[in-house]
Amino acid sequence: MTETELAIGIVTISDRATSGQYADRSGPAINDYFREVWGERWSPLLRLIPDEQPVIETTLRELADVHHVPLVVTTGGTGPAVRDVTPEATIAVSDRLMPGFGEAMRAVSLTHVPTAILSRQIAVIRGRTLIINLPGSPRAITQCLDAVMPAVPYCLELLGWPFWETNPQRLVAFRPK
Amino acid sequence: MTETELAIGIVTISDRATSGQYADRSGPAINDYFREVWGERWSPLLRLIPDEQPVIETTLRELADVHHVPLVVTTGGTGPAVRDVTPEATIAVSDRLMPGFGEAMRAVSLTHVPTAILSRQIAVIRGRTLIINLPGSPRAITQCLDAVMPAVPYCLELLGWPFWETNPQRLVAFRPK
Amino acid sequence: MTETELAIGIVTISDRATSGQYADRSGPAINDYFREVWGERWSPLLRLIPDEQPVIETTLRELADVHHVPLVVTTGGTGPAVRDVTPEATIAVSDRLMPGFGEAMRAVSLTHVPTAILSRQIAVIRGRTLIINLPGSPRAITQCLDAVMPAVPYCLELLGWPFWETNPQRLVAFRPK
Description:
Three copies of one chain form a homotrimer. Chain A has a six-stranded mixed sheet, with helices on both faces. By secondary structure, chain A is of the alpha/beta class. The longest helix of chain A is centred in the middle third of the chain and has 14 residues, at 53-66. Chain A has seven helices and six strands; from the N terminus they run βααβαβαβαββαα. Chain A is globular. The first copy, chain A, has helices spanning 15-18, 26-38, 53-66, 86-92, 99-110, 138-148, 152-158, and strands at residues 6-13, 42-49, 71-75, 96-97, 123-126, 129-134. Chain A has one domain: MoaB/Mog-like domain (Molybdenum Cofactor Biosythetic Enzyme, Chain A, 3-Layer(aba) Sandwich), CATH 3.40.980.10. Chain A binds chain B through residues 79-82, 87-88, 102-103, 106-107, 110, 113-120, 122, 137, and chain B through 96-101, 103-104, 107, 125, 128, 130, 148, 150-151, 154-155, 158-160, 174-176.
């Protein structure tokens, strides 16, 4: 990884995928998404962990504090079921909440399915790392990423990271002025 | 109440209705709403209490922890006035916040009245009980319930409750996949 | 200031404007806005302070608790950059959160720029004072104020302040019933 290369943490949070009950399709879907929108100038840091709040917190802290990853996306664990604790873990490691991400992702998902209101996904900043919760299903992941990604490169620049080129045919990064 | 019958807590929170200054019209409006959408397979647990945060908290805890009610809806006390403390009481008994409910209900209300942004209504989960704050006026109650109810049966199933039939002419419950 | 005159606190939060690196254009833009919508029956209390959380908190407390200002609007410091701490200061002095303001302002801004989701602006009530965070740019300020101001006069009345006339050609205040 060169100094200006973008590292992206991709964290799949799922009891069943972790135990091998089924294959993780969400992490690879996110990986494919970023390969398409960022071009080649990034490297993934992949994690597959169970729906355990302490494990999620440790993983997010490690990616932010040890690996200094500019962007971390999680998938899974944002629903109302008793094992869904991803938002609680994300808030626990947060320095600052970014309420607009959750609002925008739910609003877009709501145009597809009424159950979008059940998603508790949020985004936060820890140090200089932006952490975004995504839903579990690959289709919803793409909808949510399309909704927020135009703002992400500028957000990373405001957090002190360099200017990264995106693939303009897939993602037009918006920068004010 | 049979084992698979749905119990719904309906909590009117109003100093004036409690003291008899006027009749509670909001609780009955909610009762009528659920009679229409759920058919006959449910029973209401009605409460009428003042805008006192400790009383509201005790009532919500009793419905969730003692009566094991799957769904509790409150009406009243969500505005900015000094006696409006329903959201604070609801957050105080919450295990997990459900931000999408408040967002969706305000967004729908905002298409009717600009003062919808003054509503501080939220939804939370306590144990396996979903608690939803509704506004005070019967018309706004219907608008808000129509906005969120398609997602509620699936939410209750994710919380471990059985599949309940709704009246398909009035409420199409959405369940992913 | 007569007894029924409206005082509005206008707080510009900006390291660079405070140090004289550039002129504050946001505070004057807000001042112009209220001159237009409220007519002459109000007086501004202007503040220009750096992005320091303790200073922001002290300023908000002084306007609410000492000057008993019904309405305070801030501009600046709501983004994701490390110096942006206006929402944290606002929450710290809050008695009650008003989530609908931030949601509505971001939703309106999002129709203009995708980076609207990066704004962390909120509104709160402290005692009988409504405090609203606005973004930093004059254009975004107008968009956000236009989105929420129709509900503000009624909100102030619910907080126990008198009925104030607005300029009906510029602002139609909505009051239910």
